[in-house]
Amino acid sequence: MADRVYPAAKPATANGTAAPVVNGGANPAFPANKAQLYNATRPTYRPQPPPRRKHRRSCCCCCCLWTTFFIITIVLLAAIAGAIFWVLYRPQRPSFSVSSLQVSQFNLTSTKLVSKFNLTVIARNPNKKVTFIYDPITISFSSDDVDIGSGSLPALTHGTKNVTTLRTVVSSSGQNLDDSAVSALRSKLKNKKTLPLEIKLDTKVKVKVGSLKTKKVGIRVKCNGIKITVPTGKSPTKATTSDVKCDVDLRIKIWKWTF
């Protein structure tokens, strides 16, 4: 049996001699690449994202959702209650009108004003099931923002479907006026012989429905379109009240402001 010839462990060179062994027979070394130069065995640094606060965000969203739901529910319940109240009672505002106004005295000097008016006001309650309870009513007369008289009316209870006639005297006894106010009044009297008049009635009112009473709410009645003629003798003059319009407005006070 013939012996097999295996290739030599050491490769021969071109001239038949064996090539020298380098590094103990290991693979030949090659130039180091960039990864080897910068320590390729070191793990790559990757910045970690900030931790997510899922639990806290979830609690905030849940709280906002329930708060919004609660507010919407309250608004809907209030709207439903208001609609039911309106259907059952059909509430309407009271109305006021100036029935008559007489000027019995109007004396204007360089610094003072003495005036006297006889006022009659008609108050109407158009409701069938709503009663109005008024505090004492304060009355003020003014002409172009100049106060020319004041008065009052007593407290009253205004029943359902009721028309009440209110009479009082509005006066100014020796009220001091500044020069601009006196000049404005004299100019009006000289040119037109009449004065425009505005009447304001201020009070607070409760609303009674059956046995239920609300809290007091401020109201103001403002009447415009009145013109008065100053009497020249002892006989009083009567103002024209056919075109007088009286508006009733709520007076809601929030901290320092009244709306």
UniProtKB/TrEMBL annotation:
Main localization category: membrane
Coiled-coil regions, chain positions: none
GO biological process entries: defense response to other organism
Keyword Repeat among record annotations: no
InterPro entries: LEA_2, NDR1-like
Record localization: Membrane
Superkingdom of the organism of origin: Eukaryota
Keyword terms: Membrane, Transmembrane, Transmembrane helix
Assigned GO CC terms: plasma membrane
Domain Late embryogenesis abundant protein LEA-2 subgroup: residue ranges: 123-223
Membrane-crossing segments per the record: 65-89
Membrane association type: Single-pass membrane protein
Name the record gives this protein: Protein yls9
Gene (name only): YLS9_4
